[in-house]
């Protein structure tokens, strides 16, 4: 499928976030919020306890509106579409990591995160367009309510903003368990609240039965709200996905079977007019062409599965080794940074030494923005996946990337892989580059103390312990780089990301013993400062740096400034050349 700018359009669908969830407002595309090239693309957008949908070009976006848990609806859409041999991809609108895993389980394709606060409009559109290639259906899943964003007076960071970014007509997905004629009033309110949005239809969710569905349809059609009723999905016990301290269980934990998938697909086939939805996605009515991709994103994008190597242990070759809050503004693409460093990067690229980055990936380390990995590949990195739970360290690495996840749930097993921990510590000691986020920081610490008080020793690269706590730290953050940050140059200025964790550094940072890895370059430094985005938040020192190791509780989104992925890779190249010259 071509994109609107190429004389065809892409479909999109959005759905809603679970009740009681107040995660940062962004959007995730599982193209199947997505990637695609064919006749239609479908996205699912998660939106709090409310679900509301939208169409982008020939794409559909769905998002839930009221009450109850609608988390099972987007997978139903994906699986029912898959049963029709549609090529799907998902996207998530916000900073969530778990929903994309479910998107991938449903579609077999990687899901990306779109986010109106962390990323600029241009970056979101570029990610969407790259993600929407080679698919028939792109499902965009939003967060919270359709109009809920960073504050109470604007659409910044909301699903409605993303619908406008992508030119997406909206299909409302309304939870109706305790509603009848009131549903028409609610739909009227949503469709008239912002006249700049285009609404293509409504799907009723958690319907009590045929009579209830008929009342709802009668109410909407009688009120003449101008929205087509596309179906009503009955309330179905036993299909919700369970949750835990950081959100949903992962798909592997749930053991989603082929029978379970078929059951969800059958529900959608029986109760939703999928042909009408696909027809809506294929029409030009009310659709706006997506803007062109900015120059900074005209990198050749490699599909992750085609250009990423998984580590084979049998082939292992080891080396011996306090400000107040400001209203967040739309992030600007820092093109000047790319231009400023064009000659430097060009000179380095002319000598194109290959760069191998080991990426920790298993049940303990699974929180990565797919776009971060894609941007590293675009910058010339070869990604080598390995499991800290069971593998040795891959050989011939220039850097190691530890993402977030659940090291606390696997602390005992991680602590038993001493061969890997010794190798990681040796890699750090000889100046190897390591970048770690959240769970990765915990793994590089002296160890983890569980909520039960049990301690498990880990890598010992960082001179402090971490411990699990009851209090959750969550929110968007601005990151300001310091002079001397070993991985990202300070002229990148501001990066954006989010924090989401139930752990903390157990030691008093003022009494940290820096002698563990020597002095000077081996001493602990702060690579940047971090400011949580809520009123009265103080600037905190973050980015724990020791030698060529940078660890943080912040999950950075490299798309907030695409130059940072290039500097990551070029820093690895320079370090590799330094080693060769010794």
UniProtKB/TrEMBL annotation:
Protein name: CobB/CobQ-like glutamine amidotransferase domain-containing protein
Every CobB/CobQ-like glutamine amidotransferase domain range: 356-561
Pfam families found in the cross-reference section: GATase_3 (PF07685)
Annotated Basic residues bias: 297-324
Signal peptide per UniProt: none
CDD domains found in the cross-reference section: GATase1_CobB
Keyword Transmembrane: no
Sequence ranges of Basic and acidic residues compositional bias: 1-20
Keyword list, A-Z: Glutamine amidotransferase
SUPFAM superfamilies xref list: Class I glutamine amidotransferase-like, P-loop containing nucleoside triphosphate hydrolases
Region of interest: Disordered: 1-34, 291-334
Keyword Oxidoreductase carried by entry: no
Domain of life: Eukaryota
GO MF annotation, one: cobyrinic acid a,c-diamide synthase activity
